[in-house]
Structures are given as structure tokens and as C-alpha cells.
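EI: anyone free to look at a 369-residue chain?
SC: sure, send it
EI:
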Amino acid sequence: MTTSPRTTARQLGSILLLLRLAPMTLTLPMMIGMPSSQGLWIAGIAGTVISVPLLAWMAALCTVEGLDDVVRISRRLLGTIVGSAVGWLFILYWLILAAFELRSVSEAYVTGTTPDTPIIVLMALTALVSAGIARRGLRLIAMMSELIAVLILVSLLLTMFLPLDVIQLRNLLPVLPEGLRPLALPTATAVSLFLDMVVLMMIAPSMTSGRGLVQGVIWSALVSGAVLTLLIIAATAVFGPISTALELPALSLTRIVSIGQVIERLELITVVSWTFGVGLALAVLLWAAAVASARLLGLRRFEPLVYPLGGLAVFLGIRMWPDVGSFDRSGTAIRGGLVTSGFVLVVLVVLTIASWLRRRTSGDAGRRG
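SC: here you go
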């Protein structure tokens, strides 16, 4: 199988940033259905603080195992049968995540710009383009991500800071109207969003060094957390109590942005930038699923698997969420995030223990020898 060229820390950070910004900024699952939004920015900060050590743990495990990917690490530490089962579960996880990314940007298009276009058409076109990028390999994804990440961040800054004339800071008070307990669910949801960055454990073999892997992971998590927190504050300050009832809070925020008398509505610019971001996020997920599948099937090339996996992501995106309401709620910790987070954490714990036992056994054998 063809190996990927070296990936820098900045490129890795850009890839992971795009992977997280789509659900965070399109649907804001932390806000959906919550009793109040005033204190949700605290959950954003708490979720970031909890997630950074977990992501660093993933990077450290890959570094200890020689910058190998999670499929080979699992098979080496857990045996062929159990390790392969873990690999296939990761592939299913990435396909579901790809379906979520596809559905999120397509819902934004249908809601904001093209209401008469069938959603399956938008999903199929996005998957087709992303699969084409994924077939070219990680190098193209990494180079494009550096540019698109900047575009996304600029778009988000415009979205958050331009509606100054309608921001009401009193909407942020009281900060904790129901106390700390209601923040548990949105904090868990934020953590689940960050743990989706586990795809870094497939990118690890292409990194220039273990230090670069850790640096890229940490800066992407910190920037994602800052964006998440600021967007929650902006949405709450503008929409007040109704912000938790909006289907696409960030898109609704862009609709009220204006620049003088020249540009009255910026949602098209925002949706286009989200399209690029989701397209690259989808590309890296399809690439990871295809590479992992090729390893498990013993194939020398992953490229023939990309388009079928893209088609499967479209199918899952349509069948798993029959309507936008169920789609929005699926991003919360209770409706799915808790399950995927539990899977990732269990695998991390098991692999870490197996790695430690393997090194200890090897060390004892070396001393006896």
C-alpha cells in the first residue's frame, strides 16, 4: 500500500479543526433542546479542558507505538481477531461520522439557500467530490486544509462579531439559572465532538514526529474550543431564550449580519465556506475508512474502496435521520455521542494497558536474557 508523505503539525491541526467545526458551527448540538442557553459557554470551556488531555492521550499512544495507525496497533496488541474487530468498528464509526457531516451541510443548504433541491442530490454531489479528493491521498487533503481552515475561521469571525447592533449582553444573564447540573449533558456532548478527532490515529504514520503529532492535536482542540465557546455566546446574546429552539443556530445568526448597505445577507458566503470545510472533513474520513479497510482486507491499494464507502455514507445519512429534528438531536450525548465516546475511551484504555503490559514483558525478558 502506498505510504503517505509527511504531514506537518499545522496541516494535522487544520484537518482536525475542519473535522470539528462542521457540527459545532452548523447544528450546535450542545444547544439543541436545552432549558436555557446562558451558561452553555461554560460547558464549551469545560468540554475543551476535559478533551485536551484525552486527545493528547491518543497522540501519546501512537507515539509510543512508533507512530503507527490504530488498526495496526490494535492487531499487534490485541491479536488478529480482536484487533481486526476493533478496526472494523472504527470504520463503521467513521462512516457514521461521514454521514453526519454530509447531512449537516446538506440540511444547511436546503434550509438556507436551495429549499427546492432534494437533499439526496446535495449529499451525493458532496460525497462524489470528497471521494475524489480522498482518492488522491492525505497529501492533497492536508494542503487544502491549511487554506480552507483560514477561510472557515474568517467566516466564523464575521458571523460572530458583525451583528454587534443586535447583540444584547443581558441575554447572557443569569449565567446559571438552573445551577450546574444542567451543564452535564452539553459538556458531555462537547467532549463527544472532540473525541471524533480520533481519526488522528490513522494520520499518525504520516507525521514528521511524535512532537508534531501532539502539537497539531492540542492547537486544533484549543482553537475549536474557543470557536465553540464564542459562537455559543454570540448566538445567546443575539437570540436569547429562543437560541436553544433553533434548528441551525449559526446559520440563523448569519442571516441577520449586514455590512452597511452593500451586503445585507452573508449566509451564502458562510454556507459555501462550510461546504469546503465539510468536503475536506468528509474526505479525510473516507480516506481513513478506506485505508483501514484496505489494511484489514489485505489489499495493496485503498483507492478502489473510496467511492463505495462514499456511497455508503450517503445511504447512512438518509436512512439514519428521517427528519431534521432527529438529525439535530443525534449529536447530543444522550442520542449517540455517549455511545461513540464510550467506545473510543474503552479502546484507548484497553490499548494503553496492552501496550504497557507488552513493554513490561519485553523489559523483563530483556533483563533475564
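EI: The mean pLDDT is 85.
SC: 👍
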